[in-house]
Structure prediction request, 242 residues.
Amino acid sequence: QVTLKESGPVLVKPTETLTLTCTVSGFSLSNAGMGVSWIRQPPGKAPEWLAHIFSNDEESYSTSLKSRLTISKDTSKSQVVLTMTNMDPVDTATYYCARCPVGYYGSGRTPYYYYMDVWGKGTTVTVSS
Amino acid sequence: DIVMTQSPDSLAVSLGERATINCESSQSVFYSSNNKNYLAWYQQKPGQPPKVLIYWASTRESGVPDRFSGSGSGTDFTLTISSLQAEDVAVYYCQQYYSSPCTFGQGTKLEIK
Prediction:
């Protein structure tokens, strides 16, 4: 059974750095056919994709948030970590990690993530002083 | 970024009736090299994460009831629930994964009439 579980602080102050951990089970982060994305969802709004990490440690980021995000993984611990700097109240949201099937394109075998097939339950983060 | 626009924003349908949700992308999400549309549909119930229903525009995820179906190509897509059940009350989102960043529609809230 594939599961993902998010963990991290419930409350952060403006300007602080948020660090979230996604612990996965039922699949390996070294599996070339799978990767992990982070997605957030403000209350009452649509999901917003943030970042993705592939099995070869390649990273992909949201255009608008790229300067604030870093995604990494520890395959031996089955964990994916997302850091977001300079937190603001508008970053208040439920943060999810999700598994994504991965495809490869071109002669260079460029990886690309697809849809999110398994989601964690999410962790709610409030940004407030 | 590709913009995904859903219609309507909300929808009320009687039990047993058909529900139809539309999704339009600002550019084509069809990849001719493999003849696939990079479009997924998700269902989200209160307090739960989104759950994938349909991917590649029309492939039903394992375990999803066959009353859910997806259609369309290029820039226009439809999610159809053939006979609405009470447990289908939820918010539905479309998502394109043709180009990064992947993007979601604003959501359609489905209720019982």
Remarks:
- The longest strand of chain B covers residues 19-25.
- Chain B has no helices and 13 strands.
- The mean pLDDT of chain B is 97.
